[in-house]
Amino acid sequence: MFKRILVAVDGSSKSERTLAIAVDLAERYGASATIVHVREYERYEGDDVDLGPPIPADELVDQVVARFRAKGIETTGEIRRVSPGETPQQIVEAAQAADAELIILGSRGMSELKSLVLGGVANKVVHLATCPVLLIR
Q1: The total number of structural domains that make up the chain
Q2: From its phi and psi, is residue 108 left (phi > 0), alpha (psi between -120 and 50) or beta?
C-alpha cells in the first residue's frame, strides 16, 4: 500500500511511540523511509540561535536512520534549517521531494481546541499535505 513514507522527528521524549509505529509500518509494507528533522533558528544579535531540542540535529537524524536500517529498511535522512513558523511547510515539501505516499509525525499532545486555535505543526501539515498523514499521540 505505502512504498515510500516520510517520518518527521522532533527529538521530543514523546517521539518514541511515533518511531515505533513508523518502523512497524515500514516493515509491514516493505516501504522505504525518509527521516526529516526541521530545525528552527532565530537571528539574535547577528548570530543564529538554535530553537530545537538539546540533541544536535545531525545526531538525532543519524540515530533514527540507524534504527530503521537495523530493521533492514532502506532509509535516508534529511535536516532542514528554517525560520520559526516554517516547519509545517518544510515537512510537506520534504514529503513531496521524496515522493512520499504517507507522512508520519507526532501530534505533541495539544488539546484539540488549543491546536485549532494555535494551529500546531501537525494540524498545519494535515491541511497542507497532498498525501495521507498519520498523527501519533
Answers
A1: 1
A2: left
Record the pTM: 0.87
Distances (CA, A) of 99 to 58, 103, 130, 131: 23, 10, 10, 9
Q: What is the CATH number of the domain that holds 102?
A: 3.40.50.620
φ, ψ at 81 (rounded to 5°) = -105, 120
Which amino acid makes up residue 89? Q
Q: In terms of Cα–Cα distance, which of 49, 118, 52, 122 is closest to 80?
A: 52
Question: Residue 60 burial by CB count (10 A; 0-12/13-18/19+): exposed, middle or buried?
Answer: buried
Residue with cell 511511540: 17
pLDDT single digits (tens) 20-72:
999 999 999 999 999 999 988 776 665 555 566 668 999 999 999 999 999 99
Domain contains 115: no
